[in-house]
Amino acid sequence: MVIRSVGVIGSGTMGAGIAQTTAQHGYQVVLFDRSEEIVNKSKAAIDRQIDRLAEKGKLSAEAAADVKGAIRTTVRLSDMQECQLVIEAVPESMDIKRDVFRKLDESCPGETILASNTSSFSITAIAAETSLPARVAGLHFFNPAPLMPLVEVVKGIRTSEETIRALLEFAASIGKSAVSCADTPGFIVNRVARPFYNEALRILGDRIATAEQIDRIMKRSGQFRMGPFELQDLIGIDINFSTTVSVYEAFYGDPRFRPHYYQQRMAQSGRLGRKTGEGYYSYEGTP
Asked: Which of 102, 158, 189, 233 is most deeply buried (CB count within 10 A of its CB)?
């Protein structure tokens, strides 16, 4: 299959980043969200990012115009029928994802590949909502999608090898380094990352050190680019907590992955990190 047009479902941080990255590498993109106000706001934000790249000399003015023109917005899922690949990037709710895939299964031709950007949910379970589970796989980007080089390509129990090959080739074509993995809770990266976040939260909860101290130590002694609390703020504390809960439950309550109540309280408070202007750190006035 030759992929020429890519649909992206959800125009939030991840969906917008995936759309931008895909358009920058020569694909036509159809970006969907539930209202014109939401999707138009996201498209304007993407256009600003492209303009900044042009201002910095990373894109010519002509190339920037081409990228912006390659992204079309829609509020109709039926418009995805023109795409050879559709990437779902809606919030981490299994109910929402199942509903999206049921509707995509009805709208898209049988040869269209349907991929989920989920960070921890079962691809096999999502694929079960469709009539052709062989064409369903995981395509997990990392935030920010235009910058992070890794993509996890996740094979559900009934995902075909043809689908996996097509997604590996697609990932390479947009400049990503792809790793193929089995459909297990958290896949690779998020499974490895749970102790990084959870133990830092326990240290904070036990009042051994502050978030600032823990981040500084991890960066200075461990050579991490960001500490665990800075990363949570970047990803979104609610998203990070949801992923931890998902992995914990999928491993039937394995204590290695037990969520920490403090992260839950942060999510409940609405202090979700950079996207709300405040998390473990304050971002008021940050562009």
From this structure: 233
Sign of torsion over alpha carbons 91, 251, 273, 17: negative
92 known ligand binder? yes
Query: Is there a catalytic annotation at residue 119?
Result: yes
CATH superfamily name and code, 5-182: NAD(P)-binding Rossmann-like Domain (3.40.50.720)
In whole angstroms, what is the distance from residue 114 CA to residue 97 CA? Answer: 12
Mean pLDDT of 246-250: 96
33 annotated to a ligand binding site? yes
Q: Into which CATH architecture does domain 191-275 fall?
A: Orthogonal Bundle (1.10)
> Which of 119, 120, 198, 246 is the catalytic position?
119
The reply, when asked if residue 14 is annotated as ligand binding, is yes
Per the annotation, the verdict on 242 as an active-site residue is no
Q: What is the pLDDT, as a whole number, of residue 1?
A: 76
Distance CA 137, CA 118 (A): 10
